[in-house]
Design a protein that fits this description.
- By secondary structure, the chain is α/β, with parallel strands linked by helices.
- The chain has two domains: 7-277, TIM Barrel; 294-381, no CATH class.
- It contains 14 helices and ten strands.
- The strands form two sheets. Strands 1-2-3-4-5-6-7-8 form an eight-stranded parallel β-barrel, surrounded by seven helices. The protein has a two-stranded parallel ribbon with strand order 9-10.
- Helix 13 (350-366) crosses helix 14 (372-381).
- The termini are far apart.
């Protein structure tokens, strides 16, 4: 596999579903999984099989439904968890068990009441157990973002030796700055002797709004898998946004990376996930928000109408979005007003546009957005024309 390939590990159905109110049933999960496969992701984390009978069934059904992606089941560093995940995944063409344990001192002391030596042994053991069931084993070092780098390197070296094929370095609390997360990945690349035997994965949370930036810093430093969710859904403030990392990598071709994701499906799957999980997408969300390709400032509108690339680095059709929108507000200018009138079939000269603009500002100051019906009234009453 070329180093330029960035594997996309989608955890919408596991981490994304941990958002309060976003619980999915099995048929809904299967529908989303099939669309994720069509999108071109490499791995689908289908659930946490031991957590409930429903999640076990969902992982089982997804394993039967998809054909061309790895299906992953989460577990703790507990034998029963791993056995249950293996059972749920037994029909998958490419099963993966995702197991691990917390490695930061916060987790070791407060959560496990343990010590570094014991956690290291438990990390090794859980990977060995998982390798009894599948060749694809991913180890997660929970709270790696706040884990001492030297100890983290020791753990990663040991689990790779035990059989881990992917090593996940989660910034579980979204604590790291991008340069810190990148340095952590680089430290592992340069200090784990057998790191070439495994893929390094980034799993970043958005508590400080840095999940996407940290993931990109991670792949620049040597990681080759990004764990993400559609619409950035996830625990607390969310996870790395799938659509954002895909388009960053696509836009910055000089990085030499590719994901293999069909970008034209990003907006359709965003809407599917939003509707199915009953979780609206914020309007100003990058790539998939309703305002992502909307222009309301007069300066921006004028530039955009002359050349779209003055204010859009991505064409809406590239990501399966509707066409760009010129939104008329009190901040809009004459060129945008004339454009919207032309869309309605009116072709006014400069003097008429000036006259209409005065009337337009009066309406715009009273309303958040001037609609087509308002424009038709202006055309009839201000210039006295009809189509």
């Amino acid at each position: 596999m070329s180093n330029s390939k960035i594997h996309i590990f989608d955890t919408t159905l596991r981490d994304g579903e941990q958002v309060p109110g976003c619980k999915l049933n099995t048929s809904e999960k299967v529908e989303i999984a099939l669309q994720l496969e069509a999108l071109g992701v490499d791995i689908i984390e289908a659930g946490f099989p031991i957590s409930s009978p429903g999640d076990f069934q969902s992982v089982q059904e997804i394993s039967l439904a998809v054909k061309d992606v790895s299906v992953c089941g989460l577990s703790r560093a507990v034998l029963k968890d791993i056995e249950t995940a293996a059972e749920a995944l037994k029909h998958a063409r490419r099963p993966r068990i995702h197991t691990g344990i917390g490695t930061s001192d916060y987790h070791i002391k407060a959560k496990f009441n343990s010590n570094r030596e014991d956690i290291l042994e438990r990390a090794i053991q859980c990977v060995r157990w998982a390798r009894n069931f599948t060749d694809e084993v991913e180890f997660y070092a929970e709270d790696a973002g706040r884990t001492d780098n030297v100890y983290l390197a020791q753990v990663i070296e040991a689990v790779i030796k035990a059989g881990a094929t992917v090593v996940n370095i989660p910034d579980t609390t979204g604590y790291c700055l991008p340069y810190q997360y990148g340095e952590k990945i680089a430290f592992l690349v340069n200090n784990v002797p057998n790191i070439d035997k495994a893929i390094i994965a980034c799993h970043c949370h958005n508590d400080l709004g840095l999940a996407t930036a940290n993931s990109i810093a991670g792949v620049i430093a040597g990681a080759r898998q990004i764990e993400c969710t559609v619409n950035g859904l996830g625990e607390r403030a969310g996870n790395t946004s799938l659509e954002e990392v895909v388009m960053i990598i696509r836009q910055h071709a000089h990085l030499g990376f590719n994901t293999g994701v069909d970008a034209s499906q990003l907006n359709p799957i965003s809407r599917l996930v939003s509707d199915t999980m009953r979780m609206p997408v914020q309007p100003n969300k990058a790539i998939v928000g309703s305002n992502a390709f909307s222009h309301s400032s007069g300066i921006h509108q004028d530039g955009f109408l002359k050349d779209a690339q003055t204010y859009e680095i991505i064409a809406p059709e590239e990501v399966g979005a509707d066409t760009s929108k010129i939104i008329l507000t009190a901040r809009s200018g004459r060129s945008a007003l004339a454009y919207r009138f032309r869309k309605l079939g009116y072709d006014f000269n400069r003097d008429e546009v000036d006259k209409l603009y005065e009337a337009f500002l009066q309406v715009a100051d009273e309303k958040k957005e001037v609609q087509d019906e308002d424009l038709k009234v202006m055309a009839l009453t201000v210039v006295s024309v009809e189509l």
